[in-house]
Specification:
It is a single chain. The chain is mainly alpha-helical and about 190 residues long. The longest helix is centred in the first third of the chain and has 23 residues. Helix 2 packs across helix 3, helix 3 crosses helix 4 and helix 5 packs across helix 8. The chain has two domains: about 80 residues, Orthogonal Bundle (Rna Polymerase Sigma Factor, Chain: A), CATH 1.10.1740.10; about 80 residues, Winged helix-like DNA-binding domain superfamily/Winged helix DNA-binding domain (Arc Repressor Mutant, subunit A, Orthogonal Bundle), CATH 1.10.10.
Length: about 190
């Protein structure tokens, strides 16, 4: 049986020693996945996800419940990752992680890896808010409302960020010949 966030919060605030273990088991995988997509480094992602859980635990007295526990944890993780990335060179980000590749042929495999590299570079070059919006929407599959809570902005801002990110990605990929250019070879 899956414990509700409200019950988990009650246990955490009540000092239940096993509640933190439940928090880790429930959210660590999702937070790691988000951190990995933002940092592209397994060790950094592991450390950042753990740090996010520890910071959330320490900040519980200040958690007011306006956002869901899930979006609050995502926000903490996102902030840690953005702060971490400021001190590091931008590494490639693969926007196609976890997505099915509809083109199975050998030429498609070659073009696919080139396309993935171009998409990764294009996403990495987006402004931080647009990059976070694309990752949360396209890779994590979160709805606009949840993204708005995580990024602490309105749904309209999320939609605008996503629109501008997609437009910027298309422009960057067209410049590099990666957007729809491979379709002409089929």
């Amino acid at each position: 049986m899956h414990e509700t966030d409200e019950a988990l919060l009650t246990r955490l605030r009540g000092g239940d020693a096993s509640a933190f273990d439940t928090l880790v088991r429930t959210y660590q995988r999702d937070l790691y996945r988000l951190a990995y997509r933002l940092t592209r480094n397994m060790e950094d992602a592991k450390d950042l996800a753990q740090e996010a859980l520890l910071r959330a635990y320490r900040a519980l007295p200040r958690f007011d419940g306006r956002a869901s526990l899930y979006t609050w944890l995502y926000r903490i993780t996102l902030n840690l990752c953005l702060n971490h990335r400021r001190g590091r060179p931008v590494e490639g980000m693969d926007a196609t992680d976890g997505l099915a590749d509809p083109a199975p042929g050998p030429l498609d495999a070659l073009l696919g890896s080139e396309r993935q590299a171009a998409v990764a570079a294009a996403i990495a070059s987006l402004p931080p808010q647009q990059r976070a919006t694309v990752i949360l929407r396209a890779q994590e599959g979160l709805p606009h409302r949840a993204i708005a809570e995580i990024l602490e902005c309105s749904e309209g801002t999320v939609k605008a960020n996503f629109f501008h990110a997609v437009r910027n990605l298309r422009a960057r990929l067209r410049t590099h010949g990666a957007h729809e250019g491979s379709d002409a070879m089929r």
